[in-house]
Amino acid sequence: MRVYNFSAGPAVLPEEVLKEAAAEMLDYNGTGMSVMEMSHRSKAFEEIITTAEQDLRDLMNIPDNYKVLFLQGGASQQFAMIPMNLMKNKKAAYIITGQWAKKAYQEAQNYGDAVAVASSADKTFSYIPDCSDLDIPEDADYVYICENNTIYGTKFKQLPNTKGKTLVADVSSCFLSEPVDVTKYGIIYGGVQKNIGPAGVVIVIIREDLITEDTLPGTPTMLKYKTHADNKSLYNTPPAYGIYICGKVFKWLKKMGGLEAMKERNEKKAKILYDFLDQSKLFKGTVEKKDRSLMNVPFVTGNEELDAKFVKEAKAAGFENLKGHRTVGGMRASIYNAMPIEGVEKLVEFMKKFEEENA
Fold first, then answer.
1. Which domain holds residue 307?
2. How far apart are CA 314 and CA 212, in angstroms?
3. Which of 24, 100, 245, 287 is most exposed, with minimal Cβ within 10 Å?
4. What is the set of active-site residues?
5. What is the CATH number of the domain that holds 267?
6. Average pLDDT by consecutive 10-residue portion of the chain (359 residues)?
7. Is residue 243 located within the same domain as residue 268?
């Protein structure tokens, strides 16, 4: 039996995608072999990666002057790759809204002067700071944000005013959850294991003028965007099976009505959970209302023993991975695109019952 999987990543995938992949496991499209066994130089795989890219371009309305790269190393490798490729003046501005933005900021310090221009660390990252008039250095090469904070459950509802500087955004946990204007970013990237596919792929959407030979001295060939852009993500063997599943998810998203439809669906799911948290006498959300994420919903009872009891009983009832991140404790429900609405409804039913029994 399938459980309701609220994991923050690797996370729930659409059931029909998993069924399709299962049906094609031994024989993809009449090739007599699995995509797992297939040469990345084959006609069949070329079609898989080309179609996946086109479907992603359609979903996000990606302009022609942006390249789409399917890479490895996860979002964490981008923490180094971005400064290596973009820090021409050896200066960049970082907005620290959680653990991943902080890690990216710390990594960038290895390559130049990374400046924290705003932070919400003072209140355990429970809000997004005002970014309308930041003190961004004149010579900053870019401004960096993590747009949706998986651990803390916050989301930028408005992009920062970068004062004309290139915006770089990690969108790992909100990728394809709603429409996005790609032209507002220089780089928009994310690991796919939260909202798109299996772990092992990171998608980088990068404006062409940022792809140059002019990288920091000593930048490895594999960490140059130009290497991958020039070779259409096939410089070395890509994470082929992961890309294949991503491609299936893109098709599923198109079938579901695209990103406008996903946004509506995600708002509806999040409202069910947030409305309950706002009136509950036992549970409470931990994020300022204006900055709440549609994807990751952290909550607590205020009692660690009760939190642990809830997680244990929820698991026994078929609700998996509700334990909060080790750095914050409590609970967290990640309700990505593939989480069905009934999963959230059933969770709230369970929470009501638990509240009655433990009030």
1. 258-358
2. 51
3. 24
4. 100, 170, 194
5. 3.90.1150.10
6. 95 98 98 98 98 98 98 97 98 98 98 98 97 97 98 98 98 98 98 97 98 97 98 97 98 98 98 98 97 98 96 97 90 98 98 95
7. no
